[in-house]
Amino acid sequence: MGEESTDIGQRSVPTSVDVARRAGVSQAAVSLVLGGKAAGRVGKKSQEAILSAARELGYAPNSAARTLRSGRSHVIALVVPDVNNPFFAAVFEGAERAARKEGYSVILITLKDIQDWQQLINEAFTTYAVEGWVLYTMRVPTAPLQELLRDKAILVDGFTDEMPSLLLDIQHGMSDMMQHLIQLGHTRIAHLAAAPDDETFRLRHRVYRETLLQHNIPYRDDYQLRSAFTLEASYQAAYQLLTLADAPSAIVCDSDMLAAGVYKAAYALHLSIPRDLSVTGFDDSLVSRILVPELTTVAIPTDTLGEQTIALLLSVLEKKQTPHFDPLLLSLVVRGSTAAIEDK
Fold first, then answer.
1. How far apart are CA 56 and CA 94, in angstroms?
2. Entry's Pfam families (predicted)?
3. Do 154 and 123 belong to one domain?
């Protein structure tokens, strides 16, 4: 039985039946087009007529009714550690664009300062009817939670045997960054690391240390500081590094957000970037292009990441063969924040 127009006060709410009548097609064709599944099934002219009729009538699909009929919400939750980080906005945009092509929508959830995974997941299941989960740069869930998320979730930039994972080639990106600074003549290189004790950040520090040792550059404990992903915290940490008696000539940051704090500290101390200090970031977020000079950083291709993330998750949800993706290659983007060290 098809939808019927609904009256709200004096106003009639259009349905897919109204759209079908206006476009001169079947209701099934309307469902295919508005559900993003028309390719090869509905002709181009009919698609255009349906979209035009929907616009003219002001029709919006009833997602709640669709969920009840199909038993599926087609809602994916992207869980990140900090929604205030502009990089995750780009990650969300890439995932949302890829998901939309497959008829899914994406909601963004943060786990910052939230200890109770169980409560968060239960609320999301109830409130949003979440069908699939993408856990980005998150600590691996406990065994009971992994069981709860079985066949519903994947990890990105993290690994567990119990859950499909999509990895980033963090080692390659961090190594390229360190080699770049060393080739510019820097030997006093500090590391402003991210505070979360997650594998992706531990790996960055391992590569930092190993690269120094490979080039016979001393590893210094006083050049190692950790910071939360806030401007104030990274500013305080950078200020501490830059006021050392033998201050670093370069600071490697675990994210572009941390690098922004270094810029602020350098400005407060009347240091010029890159003349007095070279600074690097990680992510290639919007922040990297707002800073002056623009930031040398490691770029994570969020469009490709979004496509692979959605492809992997849908293979899990639809119980298809899981695709194999090599670790996503990251690239060094050299901009104006790094320069050769001057002989003094």
1. 30
2. LacI, Peripla_BP_3
3. yes
The total domain count for the chain is 3
Tell me, what's the pLDDT at 324? 79
Please report, for the domain that includes residue 287, its CATH number: 3.40.50.2300
β-pairing verdict for 165-166 and 11-13:
unpaired
pLDDT of residue 104: 87
**Inter-residue contact 337 to 279 (CB < 8 Å):** yes
**Is 243 found in the same domain as 177?**
yes
- Statement to judge: residues 314 and 289 lie in one domain: no
Band of pLDDT at residue 2, cut at 50, 70 and 90: very low
**Euclidean distance between the first and final Cα of the chain, in Å?**
83
CA-CA distance, 58 to 340, in Å (whole number)? Answer: 59
- pLDDT tens by residue, 155-188: 898 877 778 888 999 999 999 999 999 999 999 9
- Beta-bridge partner residues of 7: 12
Contact 157, 226 (CB under 8 A): no
Query: What's the whole-model pTM score?
Result: 0.74
Buried b (16+ CB within 10 A) or exposed e, 268-307: eeeeebbebbbbbbbbbbebbeebeeebbbbbbbbeebbb
Residue 47 CA to residue 23 CA, distance in Å, equals 9
Q: What is the pLDDT of residue 6?
A: 42
Domain range for 322: 72-168+302-328
Q: Tell me: the pLDDT tens digits for 43-93? A: 888 888 888 887 787 665 555 444 444 456 678 888 887 777 888 888 888
The H or E element containing residue 80 is strand 75-80
| pLDDT for the residue numbered 176 | 97
Tokens of 90: 């780009």
Q: What pLDDT score does 332 carry?
A: 97
